[in-house]
Design brief:
This protein is an alpha+beta fold. The protein contains seven helices and eight strands, in the order ββββααββαβαβααα. The strands form four sheets. It has a two-stranded antiparallel ribbon with strand order 1-2.
C-alpha cells in the first residue's frame, strides 16, 4: 500500500488515492483552485453551468439593457459613449452564447449518428443539467432534456461481441469506488492487457481459468510478462500505483456513468 504521504486527497469530500490522474483541478480567477475527485468535480461543473446559464439569461442581457438606457438618458442620441459600447457588447455576448446553446442538440445528434454508423448501440442522449424537463424514447434512443441547457452527452456501447467484458469492467469501476473490500475480476481475461484493464478499474484479483485450462499453468508466466511490459512502458513500479485509477471517482460525470450501466442492464434483461 502507498504511504499516507503519497496519497492525494479531494479537497471537498476527502477521498484519497495515490494516483494524480483521478483528480481534477477546479476554480481559478477569483476562486481558489482546488484538487477534486471525479464526483466532486462533476458537481462543481454543474454549479458552474448554472452560474453561466444565469449570466446568459439574466445578468448580461440586463446589464446590456441598463447600459443602453443610461446612454439614452445621458448622451446625445447620435453619439457613442462607453455605456453604449458596453451595452452592445453585453447583448452581443449573450446572443453568441445563446447560439452555442442552440448548437448543443446538433452536436450530440452528431455523436449519436456516428455511433450508429460505426455499429455501436446508442443508449441515450442527454441535453443540459439539473431538473428533468422532458424524457422520451425516439428511434430506440432515450432523449432527456434538463432545465439548464448547458452541455450534454451521448451514451453508447459496443454491441454483442465485446459487451460482457465492458459490462464487467463498468460494474467493477463502480463497486471499487464505493466498497473498501477486495474485488476479483473474472471472464474475458486472455492477455496481460486484459488484466491491466481490470486492475485499472479496481480489481485486486484477476481470474484466468480458461487460459490456464487451454495452455497450462506455465501460461501464467506469459501473462505476467505481458503485464510487466505494459507497466514498464507506462512507468508504473507496482500494481498499487495504478489500481482503481480509472474507477468511478475519476469519472468526469459519475451520474451519467452509473445511469448508462443501469440502462444497459435493463435493455439486456428485456431482450433475454
Amino acid at each position: 500500500m502507498a504511504d499516507a504521504a503519497e496519497l492525494r486527497r479531494c479537497e471537498d469530500c476527502g477521498f484519497a488515492s495515490p494516483e494524480a490522474t483521478g483528480f481534477q483541478r477546479r476554480g481559478g480567477g477569483l476562486r481558489r483552485t482546488r484538487a477534486l475527485c471525479g464526483a466532486c468535480a462533476a458537481r462543481a461543473d454543474d454549479r458552474a453551468g448554472r452560474r453561466a446559464f444565469l449570466q446568459l439569461t439574466l445578468l448580461w442581457p440586463m446589464a446590456g439593457t441598463l447600459c443602453l438606457l443610461a446612454h439614452r438618458l445621458v448622451a446625445a442620441p447620435a453619439s457613442e459613449s462607453l455605456a453604449s459600447r458596453l451595452g452592445w457588447a453585453f447583448l452581443n455576448l449573450s446572443l453568441f452564447l445563446a447560439g452555442l446553446v442552440l448548437v448543443i442538440p446538433a452536436h450530440e445528434a452528431g455523436h449519436a449518428l456516428v455511433g450508429r454508423l460505426v455499429g455501436w448501440r446508442v443508449v441515450g442522449v442527454t441535453l443540459g443539467h439539473g431538473p428533468l424537463l422532458f424524457e422520451r424514447v425516439l428511434a430506440g434512443i432515450r432523449l432527456r432534456v434538463h432545465s439548464w441547457p448547458w452541455g450534454g452527452f451521448t451514451l453508447s456501447a459496443p454491441r454483442a461481441g465485446s459487451r460482457p467484458r465492458f459490462l464487467r469492467l463498468r460494474w467493477l469501476a463502480i463497486l471499487s469506488a464505493h466498497q473498501r473490500c477486495s474485488l476479483a475480476a473474472t471472464g474475458a481475461v486472455h492477455t496481460g492487457l486484459d488484466a491491466a484493464r481490470c486492475i485499472l478499474a479496481g480489481a485486486h484479483v484477476v481470474q484466468v481459468v480458461s487460459m490456464l485450462l487451454q495452455h497450462g499453468p506455465e501460461h501464467l508466466r506469459v501473462l505476467r510478462e505481458e503485464l510487466s511490459q505494459w507497466m514498464e512502458r507506462r512507468g508504473f513500479e507496482s500494481l498499487e500505483r495504478f489500481r482503481a485509477s480509472l474507477n468511478l471517482h475519476g469519472c468526469p460525470s459519475p451520474e451519467a456513468y452509473e445511469r448508462a450501466n443501469y440502462m444497459l442492464v435493463l435493455q439486456g434483461w428485456s431482450r433475454g
